[in-house]
Amino acid sequence: MNTAAGSQKQLDRLDRALSAGTLGDVANLMGELSPGDIAHLISSSPPPFRHVLWQLLEPEQEADVLNELPDELRNVFLEEMQPEALADIVGKLDDDDVADILQELPDALTNQVLEVMDEQDRARIETVLGYSDDVAGGLMSTDTITVRADMKLEVVLRYLRRHAVLPENTDAVIVVNRKDQYVGLLPVRTLLVSDPGVSVREMMDTTRDPIPAMLPATEVARRFERNDWISAPVIDDDGALLGRITIDDIVDVIREEADHSLTSLARIGEEDTFSTVLHTAPRRAIWLGINLLTAFIASSVINLFQGTIEKVVALAVLMPIVASMGGIAGTQSLTVLVRGMAMGHINKRNEGWLIGREAMVGVLNGVLWASVVAVAASLWFDDWTLGFVIAAALIINLITAGVTGAVLPLILQRLSIDPALAGGVVLTTVTDVVGFLSFLGLATLFYM
Amino acid sequence: MNTAAGSQKQLDRLDRALSAGTLGDVANLMGELSPGDIAHLISSSPPPFRHVLWQLLEPEQEADVLNELPDELRNVFLEEMQPEALADIVGKLDDDDVADILQELPDALTNQVLEVMDEQDRARIETVLGYSDDVAGGLMSTDTITVRADMKLEVVLRYLRRHAVLPENTDAVIVVNRKDQYVGLLPVRTLLVSDPGVSVREMMDTTRDPIPAMLPATEVARRFERNDWISAPVIDDDGALLGRITIDDIVDVIREEADHSLTSLARIGEEDTFSTVLHTAPRRAIWLGINLLTAFIASSVINLFQGTIEKVVALAVLMPIVASMGGIAGTQSLTVLVRGMAMGHINKRNEGWLIGREAMVGVLNGVLWASVVAVAASLWFDDWTLGFVIAAALIINLITAGVTGAVLPLILQRLSIDPALAGGVVLTTVTDVVGFLSFLGLATLFYM
Questions:
Q1: What count of other Cβ atoms lies within 10 Å of the Cβ of residue A127?
Q2: CA-CA to B349 of 20 to 30 Å: which in A296, A355, B212, B311?
Q3: Which of A4-8, B39-43, B54-58 has the weakest average pLDDT?
C-alpha cells in the first residue's frame, strides 16, 4: 500500500520507533509503507539496522521491496534465501527484474531457482537472461500485449477486457504481423478516443521505430529521454518482437549513468553510502595508492631542484599554488568533457572546437590570475623576479590543464578506457609535474 | 516525426552534410528527425552551428524542439523572437513547459506573451506560474481528465471518446468530488479490463496520496522513483485538484539533480558543454580565484617553516605528498556524503554512524599508506626520522580528511549552504593546512 504524501511523517515516526527499539511499532508502520519507501528506509539505514528491518517485513512485501532495493543490497538478502523461497519471490516480479536479480546471483543458485520455476516462466526469463543488463535485451520485459493490424478496435477492446490485469506501464499495445514481427504501436490514448469500428491499421503509429535488442542501455535511455517515451518495443535482428522496455527501468539507468561520472571522478567506485569499514577501506585504498604513485612522480620533479630551493626557499612556499591551480582548472575541463560524453554530446565534429575553447579559457584565466599572483608574491617576498616566474608558470600550467583536461578523455575513450575513472589521476599527474617543472625550472634559469 | 532507430544513422549523415555545408540536405534530414533528436543535434553543436540549424527548422517543428532544449539554450532562441511568434509557439506546448519557458524570460516579455494568449490558456498558465519550478506546482500541467466517483465506467469511456485526443502520459483519469477535491485515481489499465457496468468508485485506487503543490521538486522525483509512477495528481492545501505531474518532467529533474552534484564538486557551475569562451571563462575564474585564496593560506603555513625547509630541503620535496593524499581521501568522503544527501539517505539516525565509518577508513588507509611512504621516504633520503615524520603526518591528515569530509557537508547543510558547492573548497583548505602543518611542524620538532 502506497502512502507517498504520508510517507515522510511515517518515516520520521519509524526513525523514532527504530531508535526506541520498539520493533512492534516498526513492523506496523512498515506495513503501511509502499515497497519503494521501505526499500528507501532499508538502504538509508546502517548495516546493523538493515537485517532487523528485513526480518520485520511481511512475506508478501518481500518481492516488491527487493525489486526497489539497490542491486548490491538486494543480493545480500537474496543470497541468504533458500532457492524455493527465491523462486517464489521471483515468480511475483516482472521478468526484466527477475533477470536483473538472477544475473547478479551465483550461477549455481540461478539454476536452482530456474529449475523450481514453471515451464513458461523459465522460458521467458531465459530469453531476457540471454542478454547482459547493459543492453536493451537485458532491460526488457517479455510480457507484452500484441494485436494484429487488421483487427477492429472493438475487437482489441474486447481482447483487452479478457485480461484480469494489464502489464504495468501499458501505454500502447504492440501491433505485430503473422511472423510476429513488429509493425507499429496502438497507443492506449488513441484506442480510448477512436471509433471502435475502425481497424488497428488506420489508427496505429508506424513512425516509432523499435529498439534493437543489442542497443546499449545508455543509448536506450537517451532515446527515452529525447522522445518522452513511457515504453518501447524491443526486436531481434529479424524484426521479431522480443519484449518491451518501460520508463521505470530507464529511470534507474539514468540514475546509475549520472552516478557513474560522479563516483568515478571522485575515485570512490560505485559504493553504497553505508558500506561497512572493511568493505569501503580497500576500495578507496586502491585509489589512494595510485595517487601516491603520481605524488611521488611530482616529488621527484621537485627533487631535481633541491639546489634552487635551498637558495630561494620562497619557492617551496609558493610552489603548491601553481600545482593546485592547475589541478582545479584541469578538473573543470575534464568534468565538462566527461559530462558531455555521458550525455552523448561529444563527436568528431565538435571535439576540435572544445579543445580550442578549453585552451582559450586557460589563456584568459591564466593571464588573469597570474597577474594577481605575480603582484601578491612580489610584495610578499619583496622580489619581482619571483612574481614574474610564478606568473609565467601559472599561465603555462593553466593552459596545459585546459588542453589536457579536454584531450585526455578523448584519447582515453579511443583506447576504450573509462575517461571518468582514469582521467582524474592522469590529469593531476600532468598538472603537478608541469606546475613544479615550469615554476622551479624557470626559477633555476633566473636565480642560478 | 520520430525515427529513434534511424536517428543515429541520420545524425551521422547530418554531421557530414553540416561539415560539407550542404544546408539543403541538412534541412531535409532535419525534417525527418524527432524534436528530441533535433534538440540533441542543436545542443551538441558549437554555437556557430546552432543558429544555422535553428534557422533551418520548419516553423511547425519549433515548439516541440524548443521544449526539448536545455533551458539556457532555449532562452537564447526565445529572446530573439517576437512576442506574437512566442505566444504562437507557447500555445502548442503543455502548460508546465510553457510555465518553464515564461519563468526564464524577462518579465516584460512574459507579460507581452500572456497578453496575446487567449483567456483560458492565460488563466491556466498563470496557475502554474504562481509556483517556482523547484516545487511540485511548477512542474505540473493543468490539463487533466477528471471524473466523478459515482459515474459508471461506460460513461467514463463515452466521455473519453468525446476528446479528440487525450493529454500525453494519461495513465489514469483523476477522480474528484463536487468541490473538485482529489478522491482517487482510475488507472486506464483498470478501465480497459473492467466491466463497463461497474462504477468508478468500485474500481478507483484511493491508496495513492496526491502531491502537495509546495512539495520540493527533488522530493517529488524521489516519490516517482520509489513508486514507479507515470503521472501523479497535484493538490492545493484544501485538497483541491490543481493539475498533474508526468514522468517526462521528472526525468529532467532527476538528470539536473544528479548533474548538480557533479558540476558543483568539479566547480564548473551548471554549464552548457558548448558555452563560448567569454561565457565559460568568468564562471570558472571565480572558482579559481577562491582556490587561489585557499592556496595562499596553505602557502602561509609553509612560510612559517622556512627555517626548517632550508635545513632539510627534502621536506619541500615530500610535503606535496601529504597534502595531495589528504585531498583525495577527503574528496572521497565528501562525495559519499553529498551523494547520500542528494539521494535523501542521510538523516540524524545514521549520520553519527557515517562519521565514525569515515574516521575508521581514514585510520586504516592512513596506517596502510603511511607505512609504505615511511619506507620509501627513508630509503630515498636515507633518513629514518624523515620516514617517521611523514608517516605520522599522513595518518593525521587522512583521519582529518575522512572526518572533515563527513562532518563538513552536514554542517554546511545545517547552515543551508550547498555542501556540494562549498564543500570542496573548504575541504582542500583543511587538508592542505593540516597536511603542511603536521608534516613541517613535526619535522621542526625533530630537526630543530
A1: 18
A2: B212
A3: A4-8
Q: Is A154 left (phi over 0), alpha (psi -120 to 50) or beta?
A: alpha
pLDDT, residue B11, reads 67
Mean pLDDT of A58-84: 81
Is there a contact between B265 and A263 if contact means CB atoms under 8 Å apart? no
Quick one: B128 and B163 in the same domain? no
Could you write out the DSSP letters of every residue in A163-214? SSSPPTT--EEEEE-TT-BEEEEEEHHHHHHS-TTSBHHHH-B--SPPEETT
Q: Given an 8 Å threshold on Cβ–Cβ distance, is B166 in contact with A324? A: no
- How many residues belong to chain B? 448
Q: Could you read off the pLDDT of B344-384 as tens digits, one per residue? A: 888 888 899 999 999 999 999 999 999 999 999 999 999 99
Q: Which of B72, B208, B227, B237 to mutate to test the interface with A (most CBs of A within 10 A)?
A: B227
Could you give the CA distance from residue B229 to residue A3 in angstroms, rounded to a whole number? 13
Q: Which of A133, A154, A180 is the last residue of a domain?
A: A133
Amino acid at A148: R
* Per-residue pLDDT tens over the stretch B26-55: 788 887 788 888 888 888 888 777 888 888
End residue of a domain, out of A246, A269, A303: A246
B180 and B240 assigned to the same domain: yes
- At B7 the pLDDT is 56
CA pair distance B214, A247, nearest whole angstrom: 25
Q: Which residues contact B273 (CB under 8 A, 6 or more apart)?
A: A336, A339, A340, A343, A345, A346, A354, B43, B44
The number of distinct structural domains making up chain B is: 3
Residues 6 or more apart whose CB falls under 8 angstroms from that of B123 comprise: none
CATH of the domain at A324: 1.10.357.20
Whether residue B251 and residue A222 make contact (CB cut-off 8 A), yes or no, is no
> What are the angstrom distances between the C-alpha of A407 and each of A14, A394, A410, A413, B252?
50, 20, 5, 10, 29
Give the closest of A164, A266, A325 to B335, CB-based.
Answer: A266
Taking an 8 Å cut-off on Cβ atoms, the answer to whether B189 and A170 are in contact is: yes
What is the C-alpha separation between A218 and A28, in angstroms, rounded? 40
Task: Tell whether A140 is covered by a domain.
Answer: no
Instruction: Give, in degrees to the nearest 5, the angle at Cα B407 between B366 and B299.
Output: 65
CATH number of the domain within which A201 lies: 3.10.580.10
The reply to whether A285 and A373 lie within a common domain is yes
User: A66, A88 in Cβ contact below 8 A?
Assistant: no
Residues B128 and B153 in one domain: no
Q: What is the mean pLDDT of chain B?
A: 88
Q: Is B261 part of a structural domain of the chain?
A: no
Report the complex ipTM.
0.85
Amino acid at A269: G
Are residue B198 and residue B108 in the same domain, yes or no?
A: no
For residue A11, tell me if it sits in a domain: yes
A-chain residues within 8 Å CB-CB of B186?
A: none
One domain for residues A222 and A317: no
Distance CA B130, CA B126 (A): 6
The CATH number assigned to the domain holding A37 equals: 1.25.60.10
Question: Is the CB of residue A175 less than 8 Å from the CB of residue A200?
Answer: yes
Average pLDDT, integer, range A264-275? 82
Range of the domain at A35: 3-133
Whether A38 has a pLDDT exceeding 80, the answer reads: yes
> C-alpha cell of B444?
621542526
- A189–B212 CB contact, under 8 Å: no
User: In the β-sheet with B146-148, what is the strand arrangement from edge to edge?
Assistant: B146-148, B172-176, B182-187
Count the helix, strand and coil residues of chain A and give each as a percent rounded to the nearest 5: 70, 10, 20
Task: Answer yes or no: is A74 within a domain.
Answer: yes
User: How many Cα neighbours within 13 Å face the side chain of A166?
Assistant: 22
Which of B285, B320, B274, B268 shows the shortest CA–CA distance to B299?
Answer: B320
Please report the pLDDT score of residue B2 as a whole number.
39
Please indicate, yes or no, whether residues A403 and A318 belong to a single structural domain of this protein.
yes
Q: Is A283 on the interface with B (CB under 8 A)?
A: no
